[in-house]
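Moderator note: this is an archived Q&A kept for reference. The question asked for a predicted structure of one protein chain; the sequence and the answer are reproduced below.
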Amino acid sequence: MPTAAYRFVNTEPLAAALNMAIDEAILTHYLQGRVPPTLRTFRWTQTAITLGRFQNVEREIEQERCQQQSVALVRRPTGGRAVYHRDEFTYSLVIGKRENVPSGVVAAYAYLAQGLQVALQQLGIASELSEEHVSRNPSAACFASSTQADLTASGFKIIGSAQVWKDDALLQQGSLPLDDRSSEFFSFLRFPTEAARAEALALYQTKTTPLHTFVPNVTREQVAEAFVTGFGDALHTRFVQEELSQSEWNMAQQLVEEKYNNLIWMKERISLI
């Protein structure tokens, strides 16, 4: 039997800090029992790089070049490495143990990956969970690393996701590149030499590929529809499109001022990857 309807939110293009703050606001409201599990798809008002919660920005990012090229930098509430937000599809999902999501980061990843796999199927792409336990590329880029919870298609990593648990709920954020922007992305990452940059980029490009490699003409709207269908099927529910509440907007704006406008904030007691 399908469960009660979950919520689907598709927000307009927003500033990077506000996008991250909204996801935390949704998580908080869900924990308070004020909103149902929520799938959100979102866009960015400018090119952005999101940093994993504990990434060292000074060591890993060319901040001056980002500023010169008007690339926004913001820290995610989730873990992982840097993600480049240009010509890509971004999603987040807030859900918890009350919906039978298994505890533990890897178990929850594998459970939710079923929704991602159905979504990709809707787009005509067969995917599978990576068999690698941990694969590391010497760069700050999220897609340069893979775990056993990552999805691959024809051997290429296609979706990168990061997760954070708070109490009995989780926030999962993910990115699905539509086009290959790896060369410009790597120009914003810090390397000891240009040769090291070129080597890391070449390795990155052998392990990843964008969605348009498989389905050249698919639109962002079609991807969003596939995600709604995919997670609905996998979680045995239906998603109803709604807007964020005024309370969520208010909390997000407060979080921007208090937290996400800064690249350094206090560490909380949480579990993440």
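Archived answer notes: The helical segments are 16-31, 57-60, 63-68, 105-122, 182-186, 194-207, 220-235, 246-260.
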